[in-house]
Amino acid sequence: MQCYISAGPMSLAEWFQWLEQTPFSTAIAExxxxxxxxxxxxxxxxxxxxxxxxxxxxxxxxxxxTGSRAATVMKEMLxxxxxxFAVMFITGGLLLMCHAGxxxxxxxxxxxxxxxxxxxxxxxxxxxxxxxKMPQWSAGRVPAGAKFCAVLxxxxxxxxxxxxxxxxxxx
Amino acid sequence: MPIIVFIRDSQYGMPIAxxxxxxxxxxxxxxxxxxxxxxxxxxLKDSSLDWLVQQLRPWMIGGLVVAVLSGALIxxxxxxxxxxxxxxxxxxxxxxxxxxxxxxxxxxFAAPDSPPRSRAVSLVVAALSLTLWFTVGxxxxxxxxxx
Lengths: 171, 147
Known about the structure:
Chain A is 73% helix and 0% strand.
């Protein structure tokens, strides 16, 4: 690993700068077909990743698949969203490498990362607090706390999409 | 119309319009995915296809309306750019095909009294449907890269 500043460990900003300039990153960024394919895959994995979560959120709020059991809907939707999120993290990671130095100080990139962290915490809270009790819920009876998680998820996912799309205009 | 000028000329007009387009796309294609995965027999097997379509139709049509309206507003700002774009033409053609194909296959297969269908036919129809819809998406993304 090549370091620009030999004294002391790299700061996060320096590390992002370094990441953007690795031969691997520049090769992707300069490829006339690989970069568009990564970007297209990142966007078109939205329905399979975020979209499945959105359908589950709408179900918790009583707005979709009403009459089904929440535990069944969650199992089915998460099964598919795993593939979508795998594509998201791989393509997103590679795209970030190409723009790391510019992304580091970008406000929309920072908000996107904060929003993803909030969504991760939200999902973890749901998993610990509500998931174990789901088999006991009768169809259509969802506690208010779980509905709160669903509303938070819907709003913050829209924020992720807006920030992700907007940051691409600033590079 | 001021909104068209805002989208075309202001710093955040295009990113906002594109973001709305993506939210509509996510909603539309997520419901399209679920319905076609069910048709292919690989998801939500406990639910019938006609019930699933009936439940998801408002979100499918809602997503389509949001995507088409935001797309129209983006288009009207610089129509010459899009009319001269090959990927845009492919996008409009496949969009029309995808909507027609989805409408008629669902009318055929997702009616409460629809006859039993073979697994092979279901698989082919679902795969064709998803291919058409995602071609619309790829053609849309290609507008930025291919003349």
